[in-house]
Amino acid sequence: MEAAVRVKDSLPAEPAPAFVPGPPGTHITLRKLTKFFAGKPLYENFDLDIPKGRITSIFGPNGCGKSTVMNMIAGLIPIDGGQILFDGKTLRETTIGYVFQNYRDALFPWKRAIDNIRYPLELAGRSKIEIERRVSELVASFEVKFDLVRYPYELSGGQQQTVSIMRALAPEPEVLFLDEPFSALDFEMTLFIRDKLQDIFMKTGVTMLVVSHDLEEAVYLSDYVLLLTKRPTSVSEIVPFTAPRPRDISTVSDPEFIRVKAHCLEVFQREVRR
Amino acid sequence: MNASMKFDSSKLLPLVGPLVLFLLWFWVVWAKLVSPVLLPDPVVTLEHLFVSVIQGTLMDDFWSTVGRTMKAFLIAAGIGVPLGVILGSSERLYRSVEFLIDFFRSTPSSALIPLFLTIFGITDVNKIAIAAFAAVLVILFNSAYGVMNARKMRIMAAKVMGASRLQIFRDVLFWESLSQTFVGLRSGISMALVIVVVAEMFIGSEQGLGHRIIDAQQVLNVKEMYASILAAGILGYAMNVFFLVCEKKVVHWAGK
Q: Of B59, B150, B173, B224, which is least packed with CB atoms within 10 Å of its CB?
C-alpha cells in the first residue's frame, strides 16, 4: 500500500490526454468536461463536437445547465476539469463574441451606442481608421435606422439588443455566443432580431451557439438542435434541421419543420419525465 | 393667452413650508412666547442678514468657511475615491479593513478634535485635517461599496471581449461605482462642513461662520447669531444642490 503511494508520488504529473479531434467540420471540441455544483456533478466527462460555420441551439430541461455549458465554453465560468478547444486553439487565442439575454445590464450605459460597438475593437488595439471602417461596415450590414450616437437607455429594447449584437460581432469573432437573446424582447422585436441574425449568419458564416428556451425558435434558427438530458447532463440527441436559408414564415409550416420540432419535443419530454 | 402661459400653482408648493415656518416664527415673537432677547423677529433677522452681506463682514466669514470645507473635501475625495475603488475591487482586501473603516466612521469626529489639537495645534491646518478625516471614511466606504456592487453582467461582458483586469477596472468598475461615489461625496462634504463649523467655534480662529456664530452668542447679539446660522444653512444646502446637479450631469444613466 505504502509502496504504491510512493510510486504514484514519484511519477511525473499526469500527462495531458492526447487530443481527440472531432469529425471534419468540427469547430469547438469539449473533452471530458467536468463541472461540479454544490458538490454534485453537473457535467462529468462531457464530450461534444460543435460544427464550424453552423448555428447550433442548446435545448434541455430546467437546471440541466444550458447556459452553464455555454458560459464554460466562453470562459465566463471556470471548469473543474477537461479541455475546451477552438479548432485546436485555446480560448485565449480565439476571438469570440457574446450576446447576453439582458442587454440592459450588458451594454455600458456611460458609453454611447456607437462607442459600445467600438469598445471591443479598442480592446483589440485596432487603429482609429480600422475601427471606423469596421463600424461603418456593421452599420451598413445591419441597415441601422436609429441614431447610434444616443446612449443605450435612450433606445428601445430591440435597438439595444441590435447594438449588443453589433458589439459582439465587431471584432469579427470566430464564434458568436447568444444566451437567450430574445427572451427580454417583445414578439415583434424577436422576429426582427431573429431574421437579422440569420441574415448576418448567411453573410458571414460565423459559428453560432444559441441557448434557447423556446423550441420553435431554436429549430427555426438552427442547423443543429443539441438536446441535453437532466443532470448529470449528457447529450441526449443532436437533431439536424436542414431547411434551406433564408428561412421565413413558410418554413414554420413546412412538414419537415413540424417533424423536427415534434421529434425534439418528444425527446425533451422523455428526458423531463426520466 | 396660450397654454404655456398658464400658471402652474403646484410649482409654488416647496415655498409653503418656509412660509409657514416664518409665520410661526413671527407669531411666536408677536405673542411674546419667547423673550426678544433670545429670538428676534424674522424680518429683523433677514434684514440683518442682508445688511451683513452687503456692508458687513459676513461674506468674509462665509468664504473662509467655504475655503476650509473645500480644502478638506478635496483632500478627502483625492484619497477616498481612489483608495475606495482599490479596496472595493478586492473583496478580501476590503473585508480585512472593514472593521477599521466602520469603527472610525462610527466614531464622532468631533471626539477627535482634542487629539488633532495636540498634533496640529491651534491652526487652520488642524481644522482642515479633522474635517478631511471625517469626510474621507464616508467617501472611501461608499466608493468601495459602489465597486463591490457593480453589476456582474457588465464585468462579464468586458471579460468576454478580452479586457484585462486593469481594463475592467478602468472601463467598467470605475464607472459602475460612480453613482455610489457621488452619494459618498455628498455625505462627505456635509460632514466636512459640520466639522469645519464646530472647529471654527472651539479651535481659536479669527474668521469663519462657526467663529461668527459663537462670537455673537457670547455677546448676546441674537440678530447676528440667527443671521449667521441662516447663512450656514444656505451654504450647506447650496453644496448639496451643487453635488446633485453634478451627479445628474456625470452619472446621466442612473435610474434609466
A: B59
A151 contact residues in B (CB cutoff 8 A): 252-253
Please return the burial class of B132, using the count of CB atoms within 10 Å of its CB with bins 0-12, 13-18 and 19+. Answer: buried
Q: Does B175 reside within a domain?
A: yes
For B155, the closest chain A residue by CA position comes to: A106
CATH number at residue B128: 1.10.3720.10
- pLDDT at residue B89, rounded to an integer: 85
Give B172's contacts in chain A (Cβ within 8 Å). 108
d(CA A117, CA A122): 10
pTM for this prediction: 0.81
Residue B81 lies in a domain: yes
- How large a percentage of chain B has pLDDT more than 70? 98
Q: What confidence tens digit (pLDDT) does each residue in A217-266 have?
A: 899 999 999 999 988 888 999 999 999 989 988 998 999 999 999 999 99
B149 touches chain A (CB under 8 A): no
The H or E element containing residue A142 is helix A128-142
Spatial neighbors of B34 by CB under 8 A, at least 6 apart, are B28
Residues spanned by the domain of B164: 48-250
Domain segments of chain A: what residues?
Answer: 95-173
Question: Quick one: pLDDT at residue A187?
Answer: 87
